[in-house]
């Protein structure tokens, strides 16, 4: 993974971001991605039954325009969710404004919003910000602060990229994402933006994006709360000049998928590591669960258990809470075949507690990354779920948000 | 509800409790309920796939002895869960010892343990404690500290009772319960002990207990974590001398059920109010959800959302998080028909935010009891889910448990 590759390095796109004044802090809060021509786009959205106006509009536009996208505009600080018909009207006004600036139709624009639910967009600030962003792009002034402009309670911006050789062409992929609360593995669970210069058919990109998101972003959980605004968008410009990929099963598609997965997985880890109040990245590795669904439910139950998350925060090798969480998942397994290790230290094997060095375990738990290995003793199927510990920081951020 | 009625007032039972030395604090930690004759008993247990040795043994004994129970022994400080075959052996030894003391068979004894998972019972301390408890009862020394002996992280003991006239007899019902972490609405979710002097057939008691628990204790959630040891036991002595109740549909059965529900609901509220770190009791009232299951899933999703619980802790009338939580429940509803009030203050009506006095809302949220009303705008079916706010106290208790 090359940290130096960012969104701005992907040929065929221009990026900008501005301070529109939506965030009270005065930080950058409006970002824009514009394709030089028309990009091939795909997106996955929140599965929350209550979804925000920008999600509704983006879904509709993506369908209407058959996956061809000119621009994506993102604002942070206001989610435009639960805002009724005025919310939809405001979202459309934003998309229409961007479309006008680039002489395209409203249906080729995607929209993302993140921030507080239930307040109307400050339209004057937003439209001024959009106008400013479009001007920057028309003047060819690409800005690197896009990944900062999409942050809410994130403490660091999250952006990285990689390259992969397909045929004789070097393909570039970069992504940016934001977390870090209201994050749970039920669809895209955050905002994510993946750009590539690859030439690929819309249907193939669609299939690949869904599979990659399922395996990466959908395996992140910070608090089990699924946002109303989660969106992950992939745009490809075709500027790399490779022979267009038209089959998901082709070697080229699989190579691209693997590289896109790498970018998404690393961004997913960054989201979990930066979870609200987090001090530790927790990787829950479920093994031999019998089925992917079983592995997912057990991993999610452990990763979302407040008691497991506070135990890790307290450097407590409390495998009992992990067994409790596995058991409450509803998945059938034989207790006497289960083994658990934390960061490589075996604590519980085949249904019985093991003697282990408490001080060594505490030392391992004090590290910034902890793994929980749980082997259910069946055959097949494992999964990796990414989460973080639950600390006073989470309470501070979320009990005192508005003030 | 009469707070002065406790377990010790129910004719036909003797109660004792001792300090066995299982809790490091030296507080009472072993309790015993013994029926003068043989009581009619029923119980509901945790649905966690990983269940503790005492749960396994009690389930088996209740079945083998067809609902006739001589005694219940409870220890706090050690859960005897995930302890393999030695755990089962230890549980049987405890039950056998109690049986010997009262000249009955092991199968007529029920066992409950609560405390840390994954450690073996300190058998010397426990058997000494059991011997001491049995002696107290044989000497007719009923002790009122039973509800204290079952506490773990509870800050107050929870015990209350009521009376109901059935025919010409005054029936007495009393209950004691403990929480207050690893609590979620998936079966009994705590330890609960309900005693009555009513004469009732085992099958009728069984049906009534299940319905009552479903509606009260199973509607409590502190952290969404379902314990490996949850048990609710009802014992009836028949000492009231009423004509034995043999039909669930009889007026007498319904009267008893209603009184038992009242006792259970008040205990359930005490558990939620005393949730680990809690400062506020939250009553989530779901209305017009179309079905009981839908109402339950929406109520549970709101009551278990860390973002909702921290918002209440921070006195923030953040109805947006409640909408998010309702939406992530997976239940279908029409966003534009939803209304939300907090403690009677209308915040959101038919899909749109309302103007409201922020200072009034903050004032209402500062009270020790907060209601969240959510009306889904369908027909039929509501539910009340009981929970508490999520505060620094929860983190303190659970990140630093062992030390």
Commentary on this structure:
Two copies of one chain form a homodimer. In chain A, helix 2 runs parallel beside helix 3 and helix 5 crosses helix 6. Chain A is globular. In chain A, helix 2 links the parallel strand 3 (68-78) and strand 4. With 403 residues, chain A is of the alpha+beta class. Helix content of chain A is 33%, strand content 26%. The model of chain A is unreliable at 184-189 (pLDDT under 50). At the A-B interface, helix 8, helix 9, strand 12 and helix 11 of A face helix 8, helix 9, strand 12 and helix 11 of B.
Descriptive key words:
26% strand, homodimer, six-stranded mixed beta sheet, globular, Ubiquitin-like (UB roll), L-amino peptidase D-ALA esterase/amidase, 2 domains, eight-stranded mixed beta sheet, 403 residues, alpha+beta
Please identify the structural class of chain A as seen in this structure: alpha+beta
Mean pLDDT of chain A: 89
The profile of the biggest β sheet of chain A is: 8 strands, mixed
Number of domains of chain A: 2
- The radius of gyration of chain A is 22 Å
Corresponding CATH superfamily of the largest domain in chain A: L-amino peptidase D-ALA esterase/amidase
Contiguous runs where pLDDT drops below 50 for at least 5 residues of chain A: 184-189
User: What's the multimeric state?
Assistant: homodimer
| CATH architecture assignment name of the largest domain in chain A | 4-Layer Sandwich
Instruction: Give the amount of beta strand of chain A, in percent.
Output: 25-35%
General shape of chain A: globular
Helix/strand order of chain A:
EEHEHEHHEEEHEHEHHHEEEHEEH
Give me the number of helical elements of chain A: 11
CATH topology of the largest domain in chain A: L-amino peptidase D-ALA esterase/amidase
**Alpha carbon gap, first and last residue of chain A:** 39 Å
Number of strands of chain A: 14
Measured as a percent range, the helix fraction of chain A is: 25-40%
Largest interface: A-B, 66 and 65 residues
CATH class type of the largest domain in chain A: Alpha Beta
């Amino acid at each position: 993974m090359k940290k130096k590759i960012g969104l701005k390095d992907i040929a065929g796109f221009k990026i900008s971001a501005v301070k529109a004044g939506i965030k009270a802090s005065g930080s950058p809060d409006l970002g824009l991605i514009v394709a030089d021509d028309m990009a091939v786009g795909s997106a996955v959205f929140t599965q929350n039954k209550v979804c925000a106006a920008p999600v509704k509009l983006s879904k509709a536009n993506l369908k209407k325009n058959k996956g061809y996208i000119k621009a994506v505009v993102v604002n942070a600080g206001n989610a435009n969710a639960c805002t009724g018909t005025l919310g939809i009207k405001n979202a459309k006004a934003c998309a229409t404004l961007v479309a006008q600036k680039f002489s395209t139709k409203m249906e080729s624009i995607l929209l993302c919003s993140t921030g507080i639910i239930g307040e109307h967009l400050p339209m004057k600030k937003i439209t001024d910000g959009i106008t400013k962003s479009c001007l920057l792009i028309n003047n060819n002034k690409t800005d690197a602060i896009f990944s900062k402009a999409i942050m809410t309670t994130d403490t660091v911006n999250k952006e990285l990229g990689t390259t992969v050789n397909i045929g004789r062409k070097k393909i570039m992929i970069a992504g940016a994402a934001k977390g870090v609360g209201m994050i749970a593995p039920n669809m895209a669970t955050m905002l994510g933006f993946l750009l590539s210069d690859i030439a690929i058919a819309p249907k193939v990109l669609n299939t690949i994006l869904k599979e990659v998101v399922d395996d990466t972003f959908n395996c992140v959980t910070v608090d089990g709360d699924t946002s109303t605004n989660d969106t992950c968008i992939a745009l490809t410009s075709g500027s790399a000049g490779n022979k267009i990929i038209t089959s998901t099963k082709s070697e080229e598609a699989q190579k691209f998928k693997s590289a896109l997965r790498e970018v998404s997985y690393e961004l997913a880890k960054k989201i979990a590591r930066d979870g609200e109040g987090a001090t530790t990245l927790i990787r829950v590795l479920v093994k031999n669960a019998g089925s992917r669904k079983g592995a997912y439910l057990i991993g999610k139950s452990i990763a979302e258990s407040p008691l497991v998350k506070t135990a890790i925060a307290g450097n407590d090798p409390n495998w009992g809470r992990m067994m409790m969480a596995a058991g409450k998942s509803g998945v059938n397994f034989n207790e006497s075949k289960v083994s658990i290790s934390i960061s490589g230290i075996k604590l519980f094997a085949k249904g019985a507690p093991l003697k282990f060095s408490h001080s060594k375990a505490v030392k391992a738990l004090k590290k910034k990354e902890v793994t929980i290995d749980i082997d259910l003793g069946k055959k097949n199927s494992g999964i990796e779920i990414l989460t973080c510990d639950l600390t006073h920081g989470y309470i501070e951020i979320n009990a005192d948000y508005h003030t």
